[in-house]
Every structure is written in C-alpha cells, then in structure tokens.
Amino acid sequence: MIVTIVGVGYVGLVSSAVFSDFGNVVFGLDVDEKRIERLQRGEIPFYEPGLTELVKRNLREKRLRFTTSYKDAVSQSDIVFICVGTPPKENGEADVTYIFDAAKKMAKYLQEGAIVVLKSTAPPSTTDAITRLIRERTKRSFSVAACPEFLREGSAVSDYLAPDRVVFGVSDEKSKEMLFRLHQPIKGERVVLDPKGAMMVKYASNAFLASKISFANAIANLCDRVGTDVKPVLDGLGIDRRIGRSFLYPGVGYGGSCFPKDVLALISIAKKYRYDFTFLKVVHKMNEEQIPYFIEKAEKHLGTLKNKEIAILGLSFKPNTDDLREAPSIKIITKLQKKGAKVTAYDPVAMENAKKLLKDVKYAKNPFDAVEGKDALFLVTEWNQFHELDLPAMKKAMRYPLLLDGRNFYDPDTLKAIGFIYEGVGR
User: Which CATH code is given to the segment(s) 229-254+271-423?
Assistant: First the structure.
C-alpha cells in the first residue's frame, strides 16, 4: 500500500517507521520544513529507543519518504492518517485546529475511494467534522475512520508491533478490510466499532489509568498517616485479578503528553453533553495536590527551603524518553524555586530540553556531581541506571542526607541502613 502520515511528531513518526518497515511506501508529511529536512537526513528530533535504526533503514530502502507537499503525498495514497497534535486549550478542551487544517489541505488531493484515518486524540465528534470539511472540498468518494494509538513513550516501537489491542473505528466494510490488511503484521486483539466509539476507547483508557495512579496516591497518603507501608498494601490489592497491579504505583503524580491532557479533555467533552464528570475532576485535583504534599515532606526535615541546596535526579516525565510535557520535575523545581531553594539537576537524556523550560537551574555532569554538598536529594524519574549508583558515597558527599523518593524506587530499609533520612510516598 501507499500511505501518508500527516504530522510526524511522536505518534506520526513511529507510525511512519513501522508501516514502512512492513513493506509499504510511506510519506511522512509535515508543515515544519526544518523537521522534514532533519528527518530526510535520518535525524530523529526526540529520544525513543529503537526508532532511529528503523527510520534510517527504511530511508535507505526508499520506502520511507519525508515531505512538506500534500500534493506529492496524498495524491498517491490509499490511506491517509492524521497524526497532528491536539494541545489543550486553557479550559482543558482539546484544540483540533491542526486536524481541521490537515483535512482542508488534503481534500483536493485525495484519490477516489481513499480512506482518511484519525489517529490524533480528539473528541468523538471530530470524525463527523472531518467528513464535512472534506466533502465540501471534493467530489471524489472517500471514507473517514478512526484508529487511536496506545503507545507508551520509551517503548513505542515494541508497543506498536505487539499491542494488547488494535482499535478500528469504521463505518464501511472497505475501510475495515483495508485497515485490517495494513495492520496484518501487528499482533493484538482486533476491536471494531464505530469511529466515535473508537475515540472513546482512547479517552476512557487514559482516564482509567490516570485514575488508578491517583487512587494509589490517595492510599499512599493515607498509609503515611496510618503508619504503614503502602507497597505491600497495593501488592495485596493488585493480586485481585479484577483490579491488577499495573499503574497502582504512588509517587509525585502522572505527567506526560497524554494523561493530564486527556483527563481534562474528557471532562470538557462531558460538559458539552451536559454531564458533570465529577469522578475525573477529583482524579485531576488529587494529581495536582500530590507535588505540594511531597514537597512538604522536605520541609518537615529542613524547615524553610530558602537557600537550601536541592538535587533533582530525573527530569523526563518517565524513563527512556526526553519528553518534559507535564513532567512532575518541572512543577517540583518551579515550586522549590518559589520557596527560595537552589536547584541542581541531572537526567540521562532530558537536560537539553529542560534548559529551554527552566531558569536558574544548574545541570550536573553525573548523579554524584548533582548531590555533592546538597541538603536534599529528590528522586523524580526512575531511570534504571539510578539503581547502580554508589549510594554510600553519595550520602557522604551530601551536606544533609535527606533522600525524597518520588517514585518509591529504593528500598527504605536499605537507604536507612546507609544513613539516609528516607521519605517515600506512603512508605
């Protein structure tokens, strides 16, 4: 098949690389000329394990082509995916401007019988709007479908190849057959429903996972007050197959490009349909409260944070990515600075991105450099390499051995035996 991916950001670039690796000719289309020029040279604009090799291989084989021309790409394609961003508006609503812009631009170039597939996360009514916009601009027949993504940053390539499920929102048999054929090499259960239902699966999935995190945080905060360890409590809870252990991990809250945005977007969607989604409002409120609660743990030991030297280990919102969108580290550092603290940070891959967002932060060469002479250490992102640190040496290098474990990454007894004053979440 010949496929166009409109928008080669995170989802679009991974999609382009995977589909071209299956033997399809794929056009990665974007209006950002500089990004396209970099991609044509095989330069990946963000960190994602395994993606660089995949892109370079398919560029060499001439199956993957990057362009800024709708005419060159769309006019040749059987299927056109929309993978542009849907950033949140101030009221939490998803901004679908880029989706509508893409639909308008592609309309006059669509082949007869082409399938336009919405992969961007957008309100369920968006597929109807796309249909109207294209129909106003072409007399050719076409179909509009939805195929939401469920990629985890840091493992996106493997997630694409072996997901739990592939969701197809289709309104006709041809779209179903074509999308099934395109996704044939991909493992996972097939879920077929209408386009609106497919987009609801996406929103409901992210909202539910965010809810599990907020619930775990609530139980952890209560365990702090009760005086018991939350880890075995959640282990006991997760053994129940009706509940499961995944995402029942307390910490400094969820972040990233999906959970915060999609929770607020679903609240906004519900409001449009006159439904007050009180449950999700509480999930969001609890997530917002988790970072102040965590910082209070530092104040309990240090008193005022004014002029205190604080080390931050981990900046990206999760391991194996350099993504700082809604990263808890940004909020933690900002709040610490407002309280007068001086911050030094280290992250394996995200420091260059952080420099664009944060002011008055020192960046360390390595974890040991970050903690030397500091009054406290905040572990914010659970990079695997942080397991291998020389913790006794780091403890000796600190002015005051306070370790605040925002991911419950370390064993409290081990840290206390080394001589740290340990604070986790519910531990």
Answer: 3.40.50.720
